[in-house]
Here is the input.
Amino acid sequence: MPSIHRYSDDCHRGVLPEQGTPPPRALRQIEDYTPNFPAQHWDAIANFVRDVARDVQCATSTPVSDLMSVLARYVLWAWQTAGIDLDRETLFRPDVIEEFIDHACPTLTSSSRGTYRSRLLRARQTLLDAEGAGVHFDPTPLSPADPMRLYSLQELSALHTWASGQHTVTRRRDAATLLALGAGAGLASEDIVRLKTDDITIDGLGVLLKVTGRRARLVPVLETWEQPIIDAVMAIGPGLPVFGAQRTSFNNNAVSNLVARSSGVGIKPSLQRLRVTWILHHLNVGTPVPHLMKAAGIETLDAFDRYLRFLPEPDANEFRTALRGPSPMEDNS
Here is the structure.
């Protein structure tokens, strides 16, 4: 998938004259815009929405208020309901946009839904065009690198090889920790960079993570992924980041920087795919959905819609047995 990067700085400097430069009035409107939803939610996504709006406004005549209202509602849904990271490449996928239109806009008229879809797809295309990608919206099958595809056992084995092949002890530990926090607990970059050794409980029930930040929660780690986290805690000591122990700030780019600068050829980890793998594992083994929602930091069932296509079809006996079940009215005394 082509990358969608921030280019508003170039646009504002006039480096992209063919895209145009938003007038000062438009930039002020973007900065001053306040949506009609709780302030604490807007505070969490405002900078991301404004960055996107400034970039898109370089190449559109859509009134700022109209653009901002659509972007704000869409990003709020992606962040709060769907549990999607504030990452352009994931958030502006056409299938995510379609999911928003299908599930998050039930009160809109057909015409309004079409307007929302058009503006979001146009925003995506504007960002892609700025990168020279020339990508349009024809549906395409999932590629092996698709952020919505889970990792196979063979791919996970290759990722273990990637982690163990890093050139220093610290990099090997960070790489192994990254895989464990992603595939073993479904953490996003912003969760990982804030996680300190003091936030990790290791006891007879396994490993429990206390995630802080905008989606604060407790996450039990899958047993098969516990050891790299235990090893990191033992090696690093109290009060330090479990990933990148020498860091002094909560820079979300720390994860992508490690992956980008890592040694080795072939497959490298995507946190989005690791999270998908973690969620699908739990759905497949029958983890109660309320428990999974709590651990994933997801607020509504709509967020699971995108995963259902990856679940195997149950055979007839499994289907009947699961739905027959014991009666809740049975006397178990």
Notes: Confidence is low (pLDDT under 50) at residues 7-19, 132-145. The CA atoms of residues 159 and 268 lie 6 Å apart. Residues 110-130 form the longest helix (21 residues). The chain has two domains: 8-130, 153-310.
